[in-house]
Design goal:
Elements: H1 10-23, H2 49-62, H3 73-89, E1 96-100, H4 103-118, E2 123-127, H5 133-141, E3 144-148, H6 160-166, E4 171-177, H7 189-199, E5 202-206, H8 214-220, E6 236-242, E7 254-258, H9 261-270, H10 283-320, E8 326-327, E9 336-339, E10 343-344, H11 346-354, E11 360-362, E12 369-372, H12 382-392, E13 397-398, H13 404-407
Parallel strand pairs: 2-3, 2-4, 4-5, 5-6
Antiparallel strand pairs: 1-7, 6-7, 8-9, 9-12, 10-13, 11-12
Length: about 425
């Protein structure tokens, strides 16, 4: 039998690939209540879903072997189209920016641009529920994190006055969030933007989850009360938004938008020559994202956003009918936290996972909570999940009251 240079046979190789594929649970994608794209599937509301997803994957493969140094002309043109189209939807007159490997890189690059703009290292102010990439950036680059507690009695709401009070002479950036991880809430960015303008500080908005859904929900009329959070707020300097989340694109792909060229040049000065952390970037993710943006456009993303929120609302209604559990208030997007004020859900979580349900968990605000992010792939999964959740609730036990210190709580979960 033919063997490859390593000594492995074709049969053995294929068996190993199949086993690793099974371990990744790709075959039960509809039971994945949080994954990074592409999530499109064809439904009655999105009859073109499979076709769009397949064409995005095909385009990704056609650019798989490219990189942005010598064979990147096409992909860099694609990047410009993505940034120009979406940046204008985010309210910038002359948007600029680039595609990154994910939300972490986008947030890191935004803070490096802020440091370059300020011509110094310094402190970064952000709420305690900010993404883990923010303290990570501070640790990597020598910035001092100034973490502002949430309002008393809330896990995902910050007082702008507390942000203002936390700013120091050496502060280089404030970070606010549009679509908080675990809660789906939007920070009071209009007020924080006023503070940023008054204090002369770079304001970065982490919209990795919210960026590719909030604009379409607002324009569609689904939620016209969404507070301003994008470049329409004069104090906002940069926005990160993940294509491989609600942008539906194959991972890894995020976008970082700057209000104008001067901010992009500040990023390039800190991270030459492109402003990105990575030097060599594969063209496949850029091409896959471009295909998704080109095929969907505003009308397609609006349809996807409405379908996603229809599933989220169905999930919310179902949870309300189950005793002992609730959804944390404040979500504006398809990210939500399911928790209990009175019951320990540890055994409930374990039981749901034995049934193949995939979701993230965290130890905040109570013992164990589930982060649920419905996507179009979950069209046929919401009702079965609710049935399994209701059954599994029989395994819940009374919550033992312990302190956060004793619980070893992390705001980021696993």
């Amino acid at each position: 039998m033919f063997q490859f240079p390593s000594g492995i046979s074709l049969d053995d190789f294929q068996h190993r690939v199949a086993a690793l594929e099974r371990d990744s649970h790709f075959e039960i994608i509809e039971r994945n209540l949080f994954d990074e794209g592409p999530h499109l599937v064809s439904t009655g509301d999105l009859p073109w879903g499979d076709d769009v997803r397949n064409l995005a994957a095909e385009t990704y493969m056609r650019f798989l072997h490219g990189e942005t140094w010598l064979t990147g002309v096409g992909a860099l043109a694609m990047q410009t189209e993505i940034v120009t189209w979406m940046g204008r939807l985010l309210g910038a007159d002359h948007p600029t920016g680039f595609v990154t490997s994910g939300g972490t890189e986008s947030n890191l690059c935004a803070l490096l641009a802020a440091s370059s703009r300020a011509r110094r290292r310094g402190s970064v102010v952000f709420p305690e529920y900010g993404h883990y990439s923010l303290p990570k950036a501070c640790s990597m680059f020598g910035f001092e994190p100034i973490i502002v507690p949430a309002r008393q009695g809330s896990a995902c709401d910050v007082d702008p006055a507390a942000i203002d009070a936390a700013i120091r002479d050496d502060t280089i950036a404030i970070v606010a969030t549009a679509g908080t991880w675990a809660y789906g809430s939007v920070d009071p960015i209009t007020r924080i933007g006023e503070i940023a303008e008054t204090r002369g500080v770079h304001l970065h908005v982490d919209a990795c989850f919210g960026g590719y859904i909030l604009p379409f929900l607002e324009r569609s009329g689904y939620d016209r009360e969404i507070p301003l959070w994008d470049f329409r707020v004069p104090g906002v300097s940069s926005i990160s938004a993940d294509l491989h989340k609600n942008g539906m694109a194959p991972p890894p792909a995020s976008t970082l938008f700057f209000r104008d060229d001067a901010l992009l040049e500040a990023a390039k000065a800190m991270c030459p020559p492109n402003g990105t952390i990575a030097g060599t970037r594969g063209t496949g993710p850029i091409a896959g994202a471009w295909a998704m943006v080109t095929l969907l456009g505003e009308d397609g993303y609006t349809a996807v956003s409405l379908q996603t929120m229809k599933l989220r609302d169905r999930l919310f209604s179902g949870v309300e009918a189950i005793d002992g559990v609730q959804i944390y208030p404040g979500s504006r997007i398809n990210v939500s936290l399911l928790f209990s004020d009175e019951l320990d859900l540890s055994h409930v979580v374990a039981e749901l996972r034995t049934k193949g349900w995939m979701f993230s968990t965290r130890n905040h605000p109570r013992n164990v909570a589930m982060v649920l992010v419905p996507m179009p792939q979950n069209e046929r999964a919401i009702d079965p999940f609710l049935e399994d959740l209701e059954t599994a609730m029989s395994l819940a036990s009374p919550l033992r009251r312990i302190s956060e210190t004793e619980s070893g709580d992390s705001p980021y979960g696993v």
